[in-house]
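worker-3 :: picked DUF1266 domain-containing protein
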Amino acid sequence: MARCGRLGGVPRPESVLQNHIGDVEFPVRRRRRYAAALDAARREDQKALGRRALGLTLFAGPLGLIAFLVALTVYPQGTEFSNPFVVFVGGLMVGLLVGVVFFAIRDAGAPLRAQRQYIALSGRQPLTLRQQQILALDASSDLSFRGWNSSLAFAPTYIELPEEVRQRHLDGQKGGPWVALPVLPVSAYRAALDEQFKIASRTDAEVLAADARAVGLWSQRFAAVASSPDGEAMMSRVAALTGVDVFDLIELTHPTDDAPATLLLAGDTERAIGALRYAYASGYLTAEHTWQLLEPLADRVFATYTGWDAYWRDVLIATAFRTDSLDAVQQQRDNLRHLAASDWPAGSLPFPRVDSPRRAVPRDTA
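worker-3 :: tokens ->
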């Protein structure tokens, strides 16, 4: 099974490779489907189509010319091989065939090459076990769109690239470095971050992290509804969507002697981690600052739950409360099954040990 980062030993040269964006397979490998995808993309891009035509011409032309010269100088007149035009066309056809095969093989490895180049330019380092465990709290969300989970940035971003590359492409407003590894413009990251989380600055990100450390958005709403006249109906609905006993849901609203009520801690933590990673990819937070904000959020989760099953069950509960949708809950379950069956590091990590977790009841996400 593939591993990423320093999990259990000295980091390997390929240890920072991720899956190809949009694909579950970890890490990225040469695949014929990538060649087909690039061909489809070229048909929509006249410039890319022209570059490929030029490449094929450079393959076919020399072979045709060589065949033409051979026909003139080697073969005697009167034979089928002495007709320069026929031999030239034959050489062109062979050259085109060789070119098609060569470029198909090359395109199959284009995402792998592009990601290696991205890694070299970004200077990305392998994750520590602790860092991968923190990012694993956001793994279901990453898997839902086949993003990166073994990287602070959940997808390629100009923020991680050298200034020269950023200036050349105007942070994504002017083309991109790789056809096989599209990099979203920084402006697109920022617009999506503002739309989804109302974060448009470093301060906004810090405030969201502080709120999540106290009582997160969904926990606040869950507590408010639970204590209202609609509380019983809400609990029954969430129980029906998730298969969790109503009494277990009620338990989430009760504090213990040594800890506040759990509420929707798991869902709020997943949301906050995703938002902070978005803020990093948007350039509002440095990597160091982002990890500093993530650490206390993860600490609370690891001190509250007994394992991944417990955490993911409560994420399902938050999903049911937030969406009121059986389809959304089922998609979350499917993501978790895919995660467990994948080679993603997050699918087989040990859960951090805490001497006295606040909640000792294992949660079933099946």
